[in-house]
Amino acid sequence: MFEQLKTLPQDPILGLMKAFREDPRTDKVDLGVGVYRDEAGQTPIMTAVQAAERRLLGTETTKAYIGPAGAEGFNQLIGQLMLGAGHSALSDGRATVVQTPGGCGALRMAAEFLKLCRPDTTVWISTPTWANHIPLLGGAGLTIREYPYLDRTTLSVDFDAMISCLEQADSGDVVLLHGCCHNPSGADLDADQWAAITDLIERKGLLPFIDMAYQGLGEGLEQDAQGVRLMAERLPEVIVASSCSKNFGLYRERTGALMLIAATPAQGKAAASQLLSAIRSHYSMPPSHGAAVVELILDSPELAHQWQTELGAMCDRILDLRAAFSKALAPAGDFSFIERQRGMFSFLGITPQQVQILREEFGIYMLDSSRINIAGLSAATLPCVSEAIREVSGR
Ligand code: LMR
User: Domain Aminotransferase class I/classII large spans what residues (predicted)?
Assistant: First the structure.
């Protein structure tokens, strides 16, 4: 049975993680996988998470099943984090939130749900997008089409190209958007662009599907949710996939959520039943631990404050690194886009050959596309990384 299988190439992000781990150099720098790192290069457990875990250990009474939707308390609090506490979609029964195994679980279950809504659903994704969007959505059987997003010369959003391409979409088509901190480019839509894309989606009868993997790491929890909230306010149906991997640092606990907003409470109820049935037939129920930790944090004013302060410091650190890095690279060209962009990622705009030289000669790891994780820099490594990039840019 297995003899006909061919070995697949490594996933580019996971393959880079492995190559970095196996590199014996002590001065190597990891700007590859999208995990937050502190000044010491560590991905620490947030102190609010540690405190919640201690509480959980003392109070948890059972490991019995939690059900396909996950924890009700987590779902309510995450819905409020995404939409703001008083949002009508949450109070009038149009929104369903379910806990999922990470943001990936949310994306895949959204795709399975869309397939149930309409087997020939087309989803439009940005070029570029996070590489795993394609297998996660395409693997459910959705047709994938691409809209241009990034102007490769200025490394900013090519909004005219995006809009004119999406004018070709048919009613009922789905548009995948990044809520904030666009992965891989760091180029986000501004408030006017969110308003314009909302108009287009409304006029053409499209369905927005927003990936919100980085809320709180762009400009702050509220600011980063502006686009999602605008669409939830104005449009009858919205899908949002969110993740607690980055903003709670719960990567390996696989904690995420999927929100469906329907036009009416009755449609919301039907949609929820379909989604829960799809979950049951895929993984039955999500893991509990990460969501229990998040629920404890968001439900406690003291822990929520502690978490927000810590997340705010992470966000500020990324913004400071962006400013310092763009300044340090200035002698090699115009890298001011790095300071304007948001979240963990930016493209350097260098060639794959230059990326390879940085990896082999200098031990600096980034994706072949030249996507770097800004949070992988530190005050200690920024000067030598900048110097190496300046050197390699001239070759
Ligand atoms: C990334 O883009 O590096 C992260 O989202 C990690 C992953 O799973 O790809």
Answer: 26-388
Residues annotated as catalytic are 130, 211, 213, 246
192: which residues sit within 8 A by CB, 6+ positions away?
A: none
Nearest Cα neighbor of 204 from 126, 124, 138 is 124
- Chain-centroid distance of CA 203 in Å reads 27
Whole-number Å distance between alpha carbons of 84 and 271: 22
> Number of C-alpha atoms within 13 angstroms, CB side, residue 266?
0
- Residues 174/121, Cβ–Cβ less than 8 Å: yes
pLDDT digit string (tens) for 258-317?
999 999 999 999 999 999 999 999 999 999 999 999 999 999 999 999 999 999 999 999
Q: What is the mean pLDDT of residues 166-178?
A: 98
Can you tell me whether residue 369 is helix, strand or coil?
coil
Ligand 1 residue neighbourhood (C-beta within 6 Å): 13, 33-34, 130, 132, 183
Instruction: Please classify residue 279 by burial: count the beta carbons closer than 10 Å to its beta carbon, then call 0-12 exposed, 13-18 middle and 19+ buried.
Output: buried
Q: In the chain, where does the domain assigned CATH 3.40.640.10 lie?
A: 65-299
Ligand 1 nearest atom to the CA of residue 373, by list position: 3
Per-residue pLDDT at 395 exceeds 80: no
How far is ligand 1, taken at its centre, from the CA of residue 257, in Å?
17
Q: How far apart (Å, rounded) are the C-alpha atoms in residues 83 and 229? A: 5
For residue 33, count other CB atoms closer than 10 A to its CB.
17
The CATH class, in words, for 65-299 is alpha beta
As for the ipTM of the complex, it is 0.96
Q: Identify which of 18, 130, 346 to mutate to test ligand 1's pocket (most ligand atoms within 8 A of the CB).
A: 130
CATH 3.90.1150.10 range(s) for the chain read: 11-45+309-393
In this prediction, residue 86 carries a pLDDT of 87
Are β-strands 364-365 and 29-30 bridged in parallel, bridged antiparallel, or unpaired? parallel
